[in-house]
Each structure stands twice: as structure tokens, then as C-alpha cells.
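Q&A log
Question type: sequence-to-structure
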Amino acid sequence: YFLYDHTAEKIHDEGGMYGYAHVAIEGFNVAYGLALDVPLGIVDFVEMLQMGVMNTEYLYDLLNMGFKLLPSAGSDYPYIHHAGAERVYAKIGDTFSVQGWFDDWRSQRSFVTNGPVIEFTVNGDADAQEFNASKGEILIIAATADVNPDFDRIEKLELVVHGKVIASTQAGDANG
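Response status: OK
Response body:
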């Protein structure tokens, strides 16, 4: 019942991406399927934001074990939220296309959100998808987050490494 490798293979054969929904709410026994399918290398993404809940536990655990997975989000419209309540944004080039969006998401140029738009650099680089840092190397991370003030406000930004908050700044703190 939890073996989806044949389904994932067919999806990949046609250029699609295979992943798990409802991970944010731990629905439908996703932990069992993830434990079987992620080590097989067939899972591309996990839906870690749904119903206003961001559950990073599975994603961080799997990333910390060396598996490369993309975060995803979904509103599950029309059953749970309204369309677009949770989103995946991909940083695209000058020309938008649906395939380009998927290519940029697949290349890790993305983030999930239910409101704020985030921009950041690592050592001044806004384009790299992965950084190979040596132990003890200092990384300079600069980030901004914006949200429509008519709908919400941002209280703080947190930098999370291996599932733990290592830095935090309050809204409006330019030194954080």
C-alpha cells in the first residue's frame, strides 16, 4: 500500500515531479511512505505548508540525512483553504513560462509561503542554489521579507540550520 515506486517512475519518465502532499498535517500516514520512498530516490518534494501550518520536521530530518528534497505548499482547494492560501514561489529569469517555473523550482530556486515574500543572499550571491562551506567558514546571510500590511505583519525572521534556529531578528531591525 505504501509502495509508490512504480507510480513515481512513470511520472519521472514523462518529465514530472513526484512528491508527498499533506506532510504538513501528517495526514494519511505520510511518514510510512516517506520512510520507504525517500531512500529510493524517487521523492522530489514534500508539502510542508498546508492549512496555515508549516511542519518542517520531516523535511529537516530528511535533509539532515543527506536527501535532497524541495519544500512545497498547497491549499488543497476547494476542500480546505481558498486557492493560493499557501504558495510556492520560484525565482525565474526574465521570461516567464510554465516549464521555466518548474525548471527553477526543480533547481531549488524557490521558497514556500502563506504570505511573506522573501529575498536573501549568501555571501552576496542571490543566484546559487547550493553552497559548499568548509567547517568554521563564515557565511554572511542577508534577508528581507515583505508582506502586504493590509493583510498581515512580520514579527521576526529566523535562520534555521539543521532544524534549529541559530539567528533571529525582529521586524524593522536592520542589524539582525
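Response note: The first strand starts at residue 19 and ends at 20.
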